[in-house]
Amino acid sequence: MKEQQPIQDEMETGVKEELENADTDNVTDDGTPEEDVQEQAAGDQDQALEAETEKLKAEIEEHKQRLLRTQADYDNFRRRTVKEKEELGKYASAKLITELLPVIDNFERALGSVSDVPEAASYAKGVEMIFRQLEGILKAEGLTPMEAVGTPFNPEYHQAIMQVESDEYEEGDVVEEVQKGYMLKDKVLRPAMVKVKG
């Protein structure tokens, strides 16, 4: 019997040690169960990944917006460039035509004064043919004279040099054209110099 007691004591001691070892294997130094520590670590890792994912999503959205703005700026630039090229082509001859306007004015004055001299009729006819040819070329380029007399004064198309009295026209109407105005396509090349009823 006595021999059985030490064996039993030994067994109990071995079981106790096993239980103690089992408990201490699953517990950290501060006494927290190891499973809780692993869950907490996994939770922290998930939060870190979630935060990183959100940060990356925000960066992607920012880059996407920047790309869209850049694309819109490029489209606007392209449209503006095309429009400027069209304008340049449309009004490329504006400078030359502007410099030719005094020549046209002088032709008209010359033709107006020559008709009074009968001896210069053939000469006047030749000058008129040259003038009509020049007018035709300029018309093909889009130059058209303005009709000012009898129309209401418009500062976009007319340059008033004086006010006059007239029974024939209403107040604010153009009474007389001192210098002819011209349009180049849909743009005022030179406003008409006019007298307006005051």
From TrEMBL:
Alphabetized Gene3D superfamilies for the sequence: 3.90.20.20, Head domain of nucleotide exchange factor GrpE (2.30.22.10)
Subcellular location: Cytoplasm
Region spans: Disordered: 1-54
Source species, domain of life: Bacteria
GO molecular function: adenyl-nucleotide exchange factor activity; protein homodimerization activity; protein-folding chaperone binding; unfolded protein binding
Gene Ontology biological process terms, A to Z: protein folding
GO CC annotations, alphabetized: cytoplasm
Chaperone listed as a keyword: yes
InterPro entries in the record: GrpE, GrpE_CC, GrpE_head
Keywords assigned: Chaperone, Cytoplasm, Stress response
Compositionally skewed regions (Acidic residues) per UniProt: 20-38
Keyword Chaperone: yes
SUPFAM superfamilies, per the entry: Coiled-coil domain of nucleotide exchange factor GrpE, Head domain of nucleotide exchange factor GrpE
Quaternary organization: Homodimer.
Record HAMAP family: GrpE (MF_01151)
Family affiliation: Belongs to the GrpE family.
Protein purpose: Participates actively in the response to hyperosmotic and heat shock by preventing the aggregation of stress-denatured proteins, in association with DnaK and GrpE. It is the nucleotide exchange factor for DnaK and may function as a thermosensor. Unfolded proteins bind initially to DnaJ; upon interaction with the DnaJ-bound protein, DnaK hydrolyzes its bound ATP, resulting in the formation of a stable complex. GrpE releases ADP from DnaK; ATP binding to DnaK triggers the release of the substrate protein, thus completing the reaction cycle.
Protein name as it appears in the record: Protein GrpE
Organism of derivation: Paenibacillus antibioticophila
Gene from which the chain derives: grpE
